[in-house]
């Protein structure tokens, strides 16, 4: 583990329609050793065949909780840096080399960057700029995650110190993980510049199917006493949204072009949970 390297876990369950694109984006990483582990929960489509085709390690994870699968994979990982990527999302070829380079130079514990959003066919829709590290806790106190999970990496020691992801959550364990890290005073770093990951938008996303459970988890996470909003939190939220106004304009244009009609999103939507 002397050389900087990264392990990325991909949780799967019947992920064949998109998995190959995800795996190829990981296997195409430049200038950094990467270990890719697929944590599968009993796929019956072509998921496992795709993994074998690309010689990707597969482990079995008991079904019912995505974070259980992620934990199972990360506990077997051997790298200095950790990440996980949903089986329908993508990273760019220089993603992990850029993130790790910043993390090593700043001695950061957690590093994240900006995110692009694409549609089901992989067409670009819009981007979002991540919040600055000193804005993150304020945004969390306002029930908002200031960066996309797909763009984040964290050190092995951070994962071990926090005993991994809390499996009592089905959708919000990533937010819980980063909130706990912020409260511990761990060092976050934000990579400026081009986006480092693509979030695929589609109506079959997991959290869209269980919105009531997701809402209950959000209340559990954000309604605790120490997560009450502080003076100045809303100012940081407004500044972050103002920085994203150009992206919002591009989103209106792209969604209107793709749908052949003028579309105005209801809000400047932030990163969603799966």
Q: What is the level 1 CATH name?
A: Alpha Beta
- How much helical structure, as a percent, in the residues? 25-40%
Specify the overall morphology.
globular
Radius of gyration: 18 Å
Distance separating the two termini: 31 Å
Query: Please, how many helices?
Result: 11
The structural class is alpha/beta
The helix/strand order is: EHEHEHEEHEEEHEHHEEHHHH
Labels describing this entry:
4-stranded mixed β-sheet; alpha/beta; 7-stranded mixed β-sheet; Spore Coat Polysaccharide Biosynthesis Protein SpsA, Chain A; 17% strand; 274 residues
Structure explained in plain terms:
- This protein is an alpha/beta fold and 274 residues long.
- The chain has one domain (6-259): Spore Coat Polysaccharide Biosynthesis Protein SpsA, Chain A (Alpha-Beta Complex).
- It is built from eleven helices and eleven strands.
- The protein has a seven-stranded mixed sheet with strand order 3-2-1-4-9-6-10, sandwiched between helices. A four-stranded mixed sheet has the order 5-11-7-8.
- Strand 1 (6-12), helix 1 and strand 2 form a beta-alpha-beta unit.
- The two termini are 31 Å apart.
- The model has no long low-confidence stretch (mean pLDDT 91).
């Amino acid at each position: 583990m002397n050389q900087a390297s990264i392990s990325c876990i991909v949780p799967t369950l019947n992920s064949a329609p998109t998995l190959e694109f995800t795996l190829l984006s990981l296997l195409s990483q430049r200038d950094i050793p990467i270990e890719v582990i697929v944590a599968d929960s009993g796929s019956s489509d072509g998921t496992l065949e795709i993994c074998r085709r690309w010689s990707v390690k597969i482990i079995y994870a008991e079904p019912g909780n995505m974070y259980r699968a992620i934990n199972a994979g990360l506990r077997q990982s051997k790298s200095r840096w950790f990440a996980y990527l949903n089986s329908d999302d993508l990273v760019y070829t220089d993603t992990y080399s850029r993130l790790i380079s910043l993390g090593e130079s700043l001695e950061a514990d957690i590093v994240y960057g900006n995110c692009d959003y694409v549609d089901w066919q992989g067409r670009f829709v819009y981007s979002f700029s991540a919040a600055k590290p000193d804005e993150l806790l304020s945004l969390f106190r306002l029930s908002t995650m200031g960066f996309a999970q797909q763009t984040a990496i964290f050190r092995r020691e951070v994962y071990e110190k926090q005993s991994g992801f809390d499996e009592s959550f089905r959708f919000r364990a990533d937010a819980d993980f980063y909130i706990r890290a912020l409260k511990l005073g761990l060092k976050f770093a934000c990579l400026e510049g081009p986006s480092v990951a693509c979030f695929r938008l589609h109506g079959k996303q997991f959290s869209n199917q269980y919105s009531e459970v997701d809402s209950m988890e959000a209340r559990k996470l954000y309604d605790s006493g120490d997560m009450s909003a502080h003076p100045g939190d809303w100012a940081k939220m407004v500044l972050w949204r103002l920085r994203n106004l150009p992206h919002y304009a591009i989103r209106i244009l792209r969604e209107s072009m793709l749908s052949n009609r003028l579309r105005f999103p209801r809000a400047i939507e932030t990163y969603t949970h799966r």
